Amino acid sequence: MNKADYILRADYLLTMENDIAVIEDGAVAVSGSSIAAAGTFADISARFTSENISDGTNRVIFPGLINTHTHAAMVYFRGLADDLPLQEWLEKHIWPSEMKWMSADFVSDAVELASLEMLKAGVTTYADMYFFQAAAAERLEKTGMRAVLGAGVIDFPFTGYAQSVEDYFTNAERLISDWKDSELITPCIAPHATYTCSPDNYKRANEISEKYNVPIHTHLAETRFEVSEVQKRYGKTPAEYLDSIGLLSERLFAAHCVWLTDDEIDLLAGRKVGVSHCIESNLKLASGFAPVARMLKAGVKVAFGTDGAASNNDLNILGEMSTAAKVHKAVSEDPTVLDSRTILSMATRNGAGILGLGDETGTISAGKKADLVVASLDQPHLSPIYDIYSHITYCMRPSDIETVMVNGKIVVENGTPLTADEAEVIAKAREWQKKIKG
Q1: Minimal CA–CA distance to 324: which of 299, 302, 356, 308?
Q2: What share of the chain is helix, strand, coil (3-state, %, to 5)?
Q3: Are strands 48-49 and 274-277 parallel, antiparallel or unpaired?
Q4: Quick check: 258 and 289 in contact, CB under 8 A?
Q5: Cα–Cα distance between 132 and 302 in angstroms, integer?
Q6: Which residue among 112, 160, 217, 391 is the one 20 to 30 A from 168 at the CA level?
Q7: How far apart are CA 300 and CA 277, in angstroms?
Q8: What structural domains does the chain harbor?
């Protein structure tokens, strides 16, 4: 008999492996940071013993959700400037606020709030594009969250972070050097967008990505403005332009991809580029509807992102899942599009795949990291149950998340974060609110 640190039990176990079947009365044995085995409780209890065996009555276990595109520190700008077009929102409100307040302390404090919000909502991994990512990494090691942290690159200086373009690349290489061996943090380079990064800066970012074998993260084809601007400058559509300068590869994951042509979709599929679908941000900024059904049919690996809380206004992947499933049915006039099993696959194994973490997380199988979510089904809005996938996609709320484990460590228990003082984190956010509001 093998001894496990934990045996998590549930009426429903969704491993998201292979045919994504439902294992009834399932269990997961966890040893150290990894999953030792997953299967029926009868099978697991015959092979493993543990002093920590959870009661799985009216519970479901699934892989930790993955947020593949956000700007976590922007949680401190939540609600600061709403109901505006993207360019006006960025240029007149967000960028000036960032220039005024951005610092390592700001990012550290804001990321602590963002990580607690995500962990309580069942998100165990997120991918970020921002500045002062070393401060974010240090904070995340304390809160115990997995992250792919992209060091931002743009064509103009950023007060307090980069006095010149050269500083962006220096900061990116330092982040990669300092964090490449971390268990929880994957460093990344993140040129902002086709209209804020020159071809030379994109190429240099790609060289760093290739040199260190780290992901590269960018915005792509988010708005009509971007498409028009790229066509004016380079005579190509955004995806065609990035391909012409060598950016499109399996290392790249691109956020939004709202305004893609069919040829661009085929191009992304052929180059194995991952796409982060941020439907609620796109809806709120009136950016349009990404052709997700066409992308999936073409073989593009699509996952979910929230974008920053300044434009969403939350970091809730469960919300993205439900919204996407319903909106794309309406847009396509096809109720079979983005069924609930596809949706949860996008939020778990697709997310891990496009971040280059498919061997570590995204599904529940022996040898992978124990990034797990246990949700309670003991609520009126989750009763009765005929299809557990349908319930997670259309009914589940962050408040239903009971236990969250990252890298074999329980970080949320009975809905309460264990790695930070939630009241203190919220109080700190209110102090920043007073400063920013003036």
Answers
A1: 302
A2: 45, 25, 35
A3: unpaired
A4: yes
A5: 28
A6: 112
A7: 12
A8: 2-64+370-417 (2.30.40.10), 67-354 (3.20.20.140)
Q: Which two tokens stand for residue 319?
A: 């919300």
Amino acid at 167: D
DSSP three-state, residue 44: helix
Q: Which amino acid is at 15?
A: T
* CB neighbour list of residue 237: distance below 8 Å, 6 or more residues apart: 221, 227, 230, 231, 260, 261, 263, 264
* CA-closest candidate to residue 54, choices 342, 349, 300, 375: 375
Burial 214-224 (b: 16+ CB within 10 A, else e): bbbbbbbbbbe
Take residue 395 and report the two structure tokens written for it: 């009914």
Residue 162 DSSP class: B
**Token pair listed for 322:** 């439900």
In whole angstroms, give the CA distance from residue 320 to residue 314: 10
b/e per residue 400-426 (b: at least 16 CB within 10 A): bbbbbbbbbbbbbeeeebebbeeeebe
Q: Which two three-digit tokens encode residue 2?
A: 């093998």
Distance CA 436, CA 94 (A): 12
Q: 52, 5 in Cβ contact below 8 A?
A: yes
Q: Are 69 and 303 in contact (CB under 8 A)?
A: no
| DSSP code for 116 | H
147, β-bridge pairs:
126, 185
Provide the 3-class DSSP secondary structure of residue 235: coil
CB 351 within 8 A of CB 66: yes
Q: Cα dihedral angle (111, 114, 119, 122), rounded to 10 degrees?
A: -140
